[in-house]
Hints:
226 residues, Alpha/beta knot, single chain, five-stranded parallel beta sheet, 30% helix, elongated, 7 helices, 2 domains, alpha/beta
Amino acid sequence: xxxxILTVVPExxxxxxxxxxxxxxxxxxxxxxxxxxxxxxxxxxxxxxDDYSYGGDAGxxxxxxxxxxxxxxxxAERDYDEVIFLxxxxxxxxQGIANELSLKENIILLCGHYKGVDHRVREHLLTxxxxxxxxxxxxxELPAAILADxxxxxxxxxxxxxxxxxxxxxxxxxxxxPVYTRPAxxxxxxxxxxxxxxxxxxxxxxxxxxxxxxxxxxxPELLKED
Length: 226
């Protein structure tokens, strides 16, 4: 898989995408992540990528030319399955979307900044818009890192134990069951006896019941989704 990220602040993405699971996946050659500075196609001697909005609204808006030119440059080299804009009014990121995108071959992620992007970008250059939540951040770089992490960890070989992702929260619209490790007793607090029983069927039954109960208590809306 290849992920190209377009941003005006590439430094924000260097560390999150260079360590832990994503970093190891890159080192193994499982994913190829390229971070592109949109100022390469900035306008004028200062390589401006933003301008005042028509209509006089407060805040600067990212210009269409740098974005268009960068996307055209990348598309001249390969086909892309998705061109995604990280936007607060996009579809809400969930595990199903991450699963779907992990099967793609080439993806472009566009990070917004300032007051957003010229709307013609959204009308003509994108295939999809994704939001990480109902709030506004300073830019799309952190959401892009979140989306990339959610995708990459699902690529076969990215996790040491590939079955681990199957029991993640939200894979079946359920939260995960509680997990414990040694010691079995600490400060008078005990690990549930069933987890010490060595009986896989009983353990699985307990985990299923706990997952359902935790979802019912903490995120009941998940049980109403198809």
